[in-house]
Hints:
single chain, 153 residues, mainly alpha, 66% helix
Amino acid sequence: MIARQSPKVAEAAQCDLSGNHARAVSLLAEACAHGDVEAMTRLGKRFLVADDAPDRPTHGAELIRTAARLGGAEAAAQLAVLWAIGMSVDQSWDAAPAALTFSAERGWPAAQQQLRILAADRELAARESDPARWRQLAATIDAGRWLAPLAGA
């Protein structure tokens, strides 16, 4: 599901625009405590890279994992990246495509595009959107190809 912005998330965005980042983080944390998936995703991403927030990558990854578990499409796409690179979570080339597929199935455009790029089946990747296609594309990802050093590099 692509999350709708809650009033707390909207207020946090306004605080950020006015430079009151501490208040924005506080509002997002309040919303997280009430199960707000969008707030968890935003705050998790901020904590991962200390973006106008404390440097808390492990907590950020946990917020993103929780948001994905609750159905957050963007969070699942972000979690796929974390699993792929092993940032603040155990690296898993099995879990990463599964999370990316979960995100694509919920309509996250970036996840859909990533699956199109990563898939080995170029014909399938070029087809019009079909909900069943995301799992098929993920099944064609050749992790070895993506992990291999470039020739001549």
